[in-house]
Protein backbone atom coordinates (compact mmCIF):
# COMPACT_ATOMS: atom_id res chain seq x y z
CA UNK A 1 0.00 0.00 0.00
CA UNK A 2 1.30 3.49 -0.79
CA UNK A 3 2.24 5.77 2.09
CA UNK A 4 -0.65 8.06 1.13
CA UNK A 5 -3.26 5.27 1.26
CA UNK A 6 -1.64 3.88 4.40
CA UNK A 7 -2.01 7.32 6.03
CA UNK A 8 -5.67 7.61 5.05
CA UNK A 9 -6.32 4.09 6.34
CA UNK A 10 -4.66 4.94 9.66
CA UNK A 11 -6.64 8.17 10.08
CA UNK A 12 -9.90 6.37 9.29
CA UNK A 13 -9.10 3.56 11.72
CA UNK A 14 -8.26 5.99 14.52
CA UNK A 15 -11.48 7.94 14.01
CA UNK A 16 -13.59 4.79 14.06
CA UNK A 17 -11.74 3.41 17.08
CA UNK A 18 -12.64 6.46 19.19
CA UNK A 19 -16.13 6.78 17.68
CA UNK A 20 -16.85 3.12 18.45
CA UNK A 21 -15.75 3.60 22.07
CA UNK A 22 -18.22 6.48 22.19
CA UNK A 23 -21.08 4.18 21.12
CA UNK A 24 -21.68 5.58 17.63
CA UNK A 25 -19.22 4.65 14.90
CA UNK A 26 -20.05 7.72 12.82
CA UNK A 27 -19.68 10.52 15.39
CA UNK A 28 -17.28 11.65 18.09
CA UNK A 29 -18.42 13.46 21.21
CA UNK A 30 -16.43 16.53 22.19
CA UNK A 31 -15.02 14.55 25.15
CA UNK A 32 -13.84 11.72 22.87
CA UNK A 33 -12.35 14.20 20.40
CA UNK A 34 -10.35 15.77 23.24
CA UNK A 35 -9.17 12.30 24.26
CA UNK A 36 -8.19 11.50 20.66
CA UNK A 37 -6.16 14.71 20.36
CA UNK A 38 -4.42 14.19 23.70
CA UNK A 39 -3.45 10.58 22.94
CA UNK A 40 -2.85 10.58 19.20
CA UNK A 41 -1.15 13.97 18.93
CA UNK A 42 0.96 13.74 22.07
CA UNK A 43 4.13 13.34 19.99
CA UNK A 44 3.31 16.45 17.95
CA UNK A 45 2.62 18.48 21.08
CA UNK A 46 5.90 17.29 22.55
CA UNK A 47 7.67 18.31 19.33
CA UNK A 48 6.08 21.76 19.43
CA UNK A 49 7.15 22.34 23.00
CA UNK A 50 10.73 22.58 21.80
CA UNK A 51 12.33 24.61 24.60
CA UNK A 52 11.36 22.03 27.24
CA UNK A 53 9.79 24.40 29.76
CA UNK A 54 6.56 22.38 29.84
CA UNK A 55 4.43 25.16 28.37
CA UNK A 56 3.40 26.13 24.84
CA UNK A 57 4.39 29.77 24.51
CA UNK A 58 3.10 32.08 21.79
CA UNK A 59 6.04 31.39 19.45
CA UNK A 60 5.52 27.64 19.78
CA UNK A 61 1.79 28.11 19.22
CA UNK A 62 2.45 30.18 16.10
CA UNK A 63 4.69 27.42 14.76
CA UNK A 64 1.71 25.05 14.99
CA UNK A 65 -0.61 27.55 13.29
CA UNK A 66 1.85 28.13 10.43
CA UNK A 67 2.36 24.39 9.94
CA UNK A 68 -1.41 23.75 9.85
CA UNK A 69 -2.04 26.70 7.52
CA UNK A 70 0.77 25.69 5.16
CA1 LIG B 1 7.82 25.87 25.67
TrEMBL record:
S100/CaBP-9k-type calcium binding subdomain domain sequence ranges: 4-46
GO terms under biological process: cellular response to cytokine stimulus; positive regulation of cell cycle G1/S phase transition; regulation of phosphatidylinositol 3-kinase/protein kinase B signal transduction
InterPro entries for the chain: EF-hand-dom_pair, S-100_dom, S100_Ca-bd_sub
Name of the molecule in the record: S100/CaBP-9k-type calcium binding subdomain domain-containing protein
GO molecular function: calcium ion binding; calcium-dependent protein binding; transition metal ion binding
Residues passing through the membrane, by range: none
Superkingdom field: Eukaryota
GO cellular component: extracellular space
Amino acid sequence: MSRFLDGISTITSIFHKYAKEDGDCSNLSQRKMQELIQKEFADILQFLEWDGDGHIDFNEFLLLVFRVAK
